[in-house]
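Blinded run. Sample ID left blank on purpose so nobody reads anything into the name before looking at the predicted structure. Input follows.
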Amino acid sequence: MTHTSIWIRVIAFVLLCSFTISAQEPSWERLVNSDKEPQNWLNYGGNQASHRFSSLDQINKTNVKQLQTAWMFQTGELRGGLNATPMVVDGVMYLMGPMNRVFALDATNGQILWKYFYKISVQGIPYQRGSRGLAVAYGKVYFGTLDNHFVALDAKTGKELWDIEIQDTKQCGCNVTSPPVVVKDKVIVGGTGGEHAHRGHLNAFDAKTGKHLWRFYTIPGPGEPGFETWGEKMWKYGGGPAWLVGSYDAETNLLYWGIGNPSSDFYGELRPGANLYTNCIIALNPDTGKMQWFYQEVPHDMYDFDSAYECVLIDHEVNGQKQKLLVHANKGGYTWVLDRVTGKYLNAYPHVDNLTWLQGVDKDGKPIKMQPVPPDQKTYVCPSAAGGRNWEASSYSPRTKLWYNMGWEVCNIIAPQKLDIVEGQPLFGGSMEFVAPKDAKATGHIDAYDPLTGKRSWRFMTKYMNVCSLLSTGSDLLFSGDVLGEAFALDAKTGEKLWAFNTGASLTGSPITYSVNGKQYVAMPTGMGSLVGGLTEIVWPEMAGKLPEAASTLVVFALPDGVAKGAK
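Blinded prediction complete.
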């Protein structure tokens, strides 16, 4: 080896170490003001209002057709696919792979800076093997695990700082499949458990030390308001998981979180009453964990219609007055709009065409004539328990003033079943068969709405259900992908398809965009990991054997250098 080549290797090593060490991890001020840093992706939802919007505009309607792969990264673990939202902080990408594999990557080329593989302590993992991501703040990487622990790593080295058990996963039948939310000096962690005999909760930990600070139970206990909505014993086992990710408004100092379904899912005889606070949006004071208000979308749910999805916080002008909205898509195919200061109902509108479980929403926001699910017979219900959409997130563009959401036209035949209650054990309460709507084809669609009124501007039809989150940008593009592996970009104003690329693997994660050294990138996680992915071949038999094979690959796109430099 020549002296020259030795020096080249030494210089390369020094530069790599320098890059790793100099990466600045975000403070709370940066997280809450993330819209000012479009080159980064600092929160799960882009900003803490869950907009999934970036003002980056180098990739635009004129040049989007010239997008090409910049780099790809394989996580090395196929079980669970790649569902995560990557975080990007000053040129470093933090990625959660399946089975709680964590990577720090050079965001320009995918080179590994460090990696950490969590050792899962149990054999039988409840729910899925994938994870939706992690959070980065205060020089740390935070995530919950598939065996229900809360872990922090040093963001610069990947060294484990703590590993704290939230609750024994074998006892509760619960775990953590979504990233936590950092609010000021706290990290708030949700969890699964809606299909097990478990009492759901949210937990807050000190961001600097990991000390447990508060726990909010999503089902009230004896003597607490709402306890009377459960009967004698189901408050201990009634589900109510906070299995997705909350949103935060610094002006109201409220943390908004969607709560999942009660268990057992279909057999409602065990739990008479409205079953608070399942199927609710709750607003908590993050400093104390105390609830300020709640709004229940589906009382006494017997359809598995979670309210767990993202709370989109939008400042909307009405008659010259700014109104602080909370827009929330329910799994049951309806979208509710609330005043997020008070929790007051403002409007509701459907985001699917096939609905049987209700006949509308009254002036107070309550479902009209909810469909009964008799315990001794099968019931046809639309939409299905997979949802009028599932967890894959919507997007709001402050440029177009449109809210982009998905819809699935798939139905269920539900057969309730009474089960014995054993803490931590499955309590699904029946079986279900996925079917096409009686008088229509099973399809999917992406829609653009006025977020307050629900007036639809356009609809983009997909032959199959769309299980990839949406991303809008400052050049009025809307990115997503489909189960056949096609990543695509739409005109956010019209819904016209402008670009497509076959990645070779189903897209079931959440795309992001970021820039490094003035170059914009779009990152698309691939690999089927959604629990509902298997119903594709059930509802669409012609798809049997045609879905892409298992994968867990991040595909990153960018413009050719010459095009990127010439773009606006």
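Unblinding after everyone has recorded impressions. The domain at 23-449+458-566 is CATH 2.140.10.10 (Methanol Dehydrogenase; Chain A).
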